Amino acid sequence: MSSDKTIIKKLPEHIDRLSEEALSLIDNIVRETGLPIYQDPKTGAPMWLDVRELRLRYVIPIKSIEEFFKGLRNGVLRTTRCKECGTIYFPPQPDCPKCRVRNMEWINIDGEGELITWTVINAKPLSFSHLEEYIVGIVRMPQGFNILAWINIDSHEKLAPGMKMRLKIGKRDPEGYITYWFEPT
Predict the structure, then answer these.
(1) What is the block-wise mean pLDDT of the chain (185 residues), using blocks of 10 residues?
(2) pLDDT by residue (tens digit) across 31-66?
(3) Helix-strand-coil percent breakdown of the chain, rounded to 5?
(4) Dihedral through CA 121, CA 123, CA 128, CA 132, nearest 10?
């Protein structure tokens, strides 16, 4: 395998390897028991192993919120606010569900927010299986809306409700694409 491949390019190979292991496990279990059911090693709970492979890659049109991605590229997190009622929506929306109109304006989001809650992700989807555990939290921004994002901190034990968090934008390794996250101030 070439060392210049990115994680994104290596991910299908990783998923294929995990899928082959899971399918082999399913085959063995079905041969032994007649059903694709096994005990979860962490909880002991019975789990159904689906025998079908489901692989999806989404292509989603973004023309109505393209400004969001242009902002990220320029190091700015942007969202929409309704010109009629003033409600701010994050993620951005092209229409206001309250007013039922398409009369939105783009605003920049920056600065600090307050941590409301968080969770540590241990059981990851295959597309994030190459990562160690990670933390996702909800941060309340001063303008009154919440943002769900990754939190960059070395230990979840250092987090506390009400903690001040600073918004960051940049390339997230190892994927190498531009995104946003929070760090404690």
Answers:
(1) 60 80 80 83 83 74 94 96 97 95 95 97 82 94 96 97 97 87 97
(2) 888 887 888 878 889 888 776 666 777 788 899 999
(3) 25, 35, 45
(4) 60
Global pTM reads 0.74
- Looking at the 3D structure of the chain, how many domains does it have? 3
Q: Around Cβ 12, how many Cβ atoms within 10 Å?
A: 13
Amino acid in position 8: I
- Residue 1: inside a domain, yes or no? no
Beta strands 146-151 and 177-184, pairing class: parallel
Non-local (6+) Cβ contacts of 118 within 8 A are: 135, 136, 137, 138, 151, 156, 159
β 104-109/77-82 pair status: antiparallel
Tell whether 16 and 43 lie within a shared domain: yes
Instruction: For residues 43 and 68, state if they share a domain.
Output: no
**Tokens (6 digits) for 113:** 């927010």
Do both 120 and 142 map to the same domain? yes
| Domain carrying residue 170 | 111-185
Please indicate, yes or no, if residue 137 is contained in any of the structural domains: yes
